[in-house]
Specification:
Blueprint lengths: L5 E5 L13 E5 L16 H18 L3 E5 L2 H5 L6 E6 L5 H7 L6 E6 L6 H4 L5 H17 L2 E4 L2 H10 L3 E5 L24 E6 L8 H9 L5 E6 L5 H10 L6 E4 L4 H9 L3 E4 L7 H9 L4 E4 L2 H4 L9 E3 L4 H13 L1 H16 L3 H12 L4 H14 L1
Parallel strand pairs: 2-3, 2-4, 4-5, 5-6, 6-7, 8-9, 8-11, 9-10, 11-12, 12-13
Antiparallel strand pairs: 1-7
Helix pairs in contact: 1-14, 3-5, 7-8, 7-12, 10-13
Length: about 375
Amino acid sequence: MRAATATRRDLPSTGVAHGRADARHVHLGAHLRLPDPAPNDLYLPAVERRRRTAALIGGLATCGVRQAFFDSPVRSWMRLPSSTVHLHLHAAGDLPRGLVAATAPASRLVVHLRSSTLAPQRSGADATLAARLLGAPAERWLLRRAALVVTGSDRLADVATDAGARSVLVLSDAPTPPPAGLPATSARPLPDRPGRRLVSLGPLVARRRCTALVEVLATLPSDVQLVLIGTGPDRLAIDRVARRLGVADRVAVVPSASHATIAAHFRHADVVVSASLAGDETPELLLAMAAGRPIVATAIEGVTRHLTAGLDGSLVAPADTPALARATGRLLADPALATMLGASAQRRTRASGWDDIAGQLLDELGWDHTAGQLLAELARRARR
């Protein structure tokens, strides 16, 4: 089985000082310790993305790391000396905390870059013009000041390297923990829509090309339905294309859904599809993989880091709608192949967890976490 991978990029002559890490690992950012959602809580993409940070913090705890948490940059500055300061950048609003943290004496700054105001199109960030004008210089300065920049994708690593970061570590994500009490079985959602079903989860925005999924649907047998879960400005365009192609009665848009309902949609999906050109598709992709569903997606960087074409998913070139239609039709026509790809994807998500990812980060920081490694191994065995 393949474990989560980490890739390090260093400029020649620079890097992170090694040796035993400090006893205090201070996390700085907003909403760092989100409570686990209940099954009936709404699935909110922005919250899911921040839940990855909470999952990493849990992994660090498993590895025996003594941690502290701060939301206020002023309060945190008083406690930062002799600490490893882990700044989590999810949005431009997190930058002021980093500017304060970077001035603290004797602290080692780690910047965890989840989105970027320097290149919002490449990172999938929804940055306003004001955020880009004010945030980009601050972000560039922070990335240069950091001892280590951590990202979850190669495209964000490129952004950090272009900004002058001294050392960049790319860590793959794992699925966020499912809500406790999530039903193991469920009734089929939208029972008035019989037949086979394509499911896509995510915002209805231009970069996700949801209209292309409607075009794919129009090439498939009439018993196939398309379920789009999400909201966004492309909703009217989706309806317009569906009417033009004569498949409006086969397209269902679910604007919001609970975690339990989304789990049910995936459980009853014949194929999970994505036509995205760019952006952070990782949480939704990992949800589908963890559910063991066959996936057809475009081979953008965030996807190819988690799926291998022909092994745990079917990947096509971005913007190639005919290829997406052919790949989807192939899986619908070959249930044995679809089952094999879905099972392989599910095994891949179980091969490693957030404790493994935390261990890779601690290795990079020079933390001796032998006891934590033992606990992580026990947790790995429990997942299998």
